[in-house]
Structures are given as structure tokens and as C-alpha cells.
Request: fold
Amino acid sequence: MPDCHVQGMTLMNTEYGLNAADFSARAQAEPDVNRPLLQRAGLALRWLALICLGLWLSGCATGSYSGSPAGQWVTIQKGDTLGQIARDADIPLLRLTRFNPGVKIRDLKVGQRILVPTARERAPSGGPYRYQLRPGDTYSKVGRYFGASPQRIQAANPGKDPNDLDVGMLISVPLNGGPSRSAPAARASGGSLVARPDPGPLQKPGQSWRWPAAGSVTREFGTNGNGQLAPMQIRTAASGIASAPARGEVRFADSMRQLGNVVILHHSGNLQSVLAQCGEILVKVGQQVTPGTPLCRVARGNNGQHELLFDVRHGGKPIDPREILEKR
Reply:
């Protein structure tokens, strides 16, 4: 019963596996970046200021609710957006959209009611979802909402009496075609335990992917100095353009806390690509792209460089982009 703005936090930590800490680790490890600001306020205030500035620049308005909407049903009013609601709830936009099947992110209707998940709930690709019971919930009601049978929900929650459910209890909700029990918990980058179904062996595409941007690789995919899994980083020219590495569909094109603008593509073979630290976004959600389609302009970072973060996922799990990129 998954934007971007992760818990301080993780974005796509559970939905895409992307962890905001992965991307911000470099900033934490380089205290000389933006030294004047650090000397005045310290690292914590620096991040707080950047987050507040980002919300202000994005035109974030007060929602049609008081306080945080997390855990509530929200009635859409004029001017509301899912991005704004996700920011106010401090959850990823992807999680919010997955908790509202059938709701179109670009076509909200005044009077429409949406369910806003909490920070405890999760919506990984393929399921199972982690859902927090609300007043009046039953396995049948939750199943109807998410399109799952109450029998499978009961099977996914051994030891929980379906006739004695407590409000606030966390349950596992398998999606149709997904596992009936929670997949084994795998330790995701950043240290949190995340349940993700095994996507199986990687079937490499028939044609190698093209590189998403011209430039030099300044960081390879792998574990960084803090022991966290970090994506590939590509330094481009000031006028650098990031383009589609392969044919696919734009599933996300918006801002994310600590990641700047982000574009997410879904490709055949259960592959996803994520391009972060973008400036101007040049595509729209739902757009079909081919290799070389311009996706965004690469933004300038705090260190004065234009660096693109490039991440590739197989079924939501990170893989080394070089496994499928053209050799160079």
C-alpha cells in the first residue's frame, strides 16, 4: 500500500540502489572545497544552506497540508506537484509514485487523493514493498491497492496474524510476479539493509553502449575511500552534453537533493542508467531515446569542474559501466 530527496539520505537506495551518500562522500572528504563557507559555518550548516537554497530555487511552495505529509492521504489542490510533496515528506519521488499506481506524475488532478509513504516504507523495483499499516487496513485492502493477492501478502509475512494487525506495523507486500517472501537482505552502499530481488545473470547487450559524455574518467566505479560504493565520474568540458548511452525510455528527469538534476533511463535487458549532476535537462519523462540523444548539460560542481556521475544498474543492482560500454 521512489525525486529524489532522500533521507539525508538515500535516493534510490532502495528503489534504484543509488545512495546520496555515495555522491556526497567526495564533498565530505574534501573539506577545502568551498573553504570560505566552511570556515564561516562548518560542514553541517553548509549542507543545510545548500538544501534550503535548492528548495527555494525550485520554487517549492507550501503544500495543501500542514507539517510533513509523510504517512498521510493528501488531496491534490491547485499548484501541488508530486515533487513538492516528496520534498515536504523528505522521501524519494520514485517511492511516492510507486505508492500511487495509476497516478500520472505530469497529469495530477485537483481533488485527486494520493498516499504519501513514510521514511520507514520502501518501494524497490519489482517488489516486495515495505508497507506501514494504517487504520482500517487489512491484507485484502492493501492487496487491492497494490494489485497483490491477500494470500501472497500473508505468505510474505509469516508469524503475523492477519486478524490481529496493529496500526504502524511494517509488512511485506509482494507485487504480482514478484517473490512471495522478502528477498534476502543485501547490504546496499551506504550501509543500510535493502531487500532486492536477484535480477539473475547479466545478459550483455548485442551492441556495446556508447559513452554518455566526452571527457576523462576521474573516478572509476567501485568502493571509495569511505568504503561506500561510488559511481563512475566523467569530467567534461564546460559545454559538455550528456547523451543516451543506448536506446531506452526516460523514466525520471528532475532534481534530486545533493545530486542536482538527474536523468534516469530504462533499457532492454532489465538495465537502467542514471546520469546525475546535470544542469539543464533536455528530455522529458516518457520520451524514447536512441544512442546519442542529448539528455542534459553537465553542471559545474563546487570544485569548479564539470563532472557527470554515471551509474548503471541491472535490475536495480549496480554494475561496472565498463562491462557494457565501448572500449576506449
The first helix runs from residue 20 to 29. The two ends are 46 Å apart (CA to CA). The longest strand covers residues 271-281. The chain has three domains: 20-115, 129-182, 216-323.
